[in-house]
Amino acid sequence: MDLGISGKWALVCGASKGLGFGCAQALSREGVNVVIVARGLPALQEAAARLQADPQRPQAAKVEFVAADITSAEGRAAVFTHRKDYDIVVTNAGGPPPGSFRDWDRQAWIDALDANMLTPIELIKATVDGMAARGFGRIVNITSSAVKAPLALLGLSNGARSGLTGFVAGVARMTDVASRNVTINNLLPGPFDTDRLRKTMTEAARKAGQTLEQAMDARRKLGPAQRFGTPEEFGAICAFLCSQHAGYIVGQNILADGGTYPGTY
């Protein structure tokens, strides 16, 4: 299927590895010009080199990068100095650390809100009107399956990402957004084989007196699919949400978790 987005410009955050890289890769393979952002320059340069060397990427598709902390005002300024207008924005930032709510002070909550709620809102604010004026825009926020099925150890993430979910539910349905072929949706990953999952499972393994691999194997078997997802298949879902064909998908929370969530709705 031709997704109809070749030649568009995409900003993909947290794209040096994991799910962000998977999204950048899928978009690049569709002929989208991607600007990838992450804090660590060496990892970002390596990611850009991998995208540029990808034989499935059309040669005309550009790969550019900005080393910046997207959760800071300075980092966002650097991104929009590099390029003002984007047709596609994929928001993504590392989740806050797991732990007990009894140990979190006010600053821990502020940091979580800055990274996982306020930063996506700032990126939406900076790009949505330009998208509407041009008659095309796709914003995909990478959140978490914990929005639907909260995990006790991920309280900071549960709270911040749920706040973003509520905000998106309203702004995505504004008529001066949706009627101009601009969509905003959330993509909720379940257990994908990423560094983030391994970091979370390391804590779980320690508490259970297990090795990391034992904990990972037990986690893998909890879901009906009996496996973890891959960044590549996550990226494919993201690319479709960013496509010309997804213009009627508005304000939705798309769960990708291999069937782990047991609910009907």
UniProtKB/TrEMBL annotation:
InterPro entries linked to this entry: NAD(P)-bd_dom_sf (IPR036291), SDR (IPR050259), SDR_fam (IPR002347)
PANTHER family membership: 3-OXOACYL-(ACYL-CARRIER-PROTEIN) REDUCTASE (PTHR42879), NADPH-DEPENDENT REDUCTASE BACG (PTHR42879:SF6)
Family in the record: Belongs to the short-chain dehydrogenases/reductases (SDR) family.
Protein name in the entry: SDR family oxidoreductase
Organism for this UniProt entry: Ramlibacter henchirensis
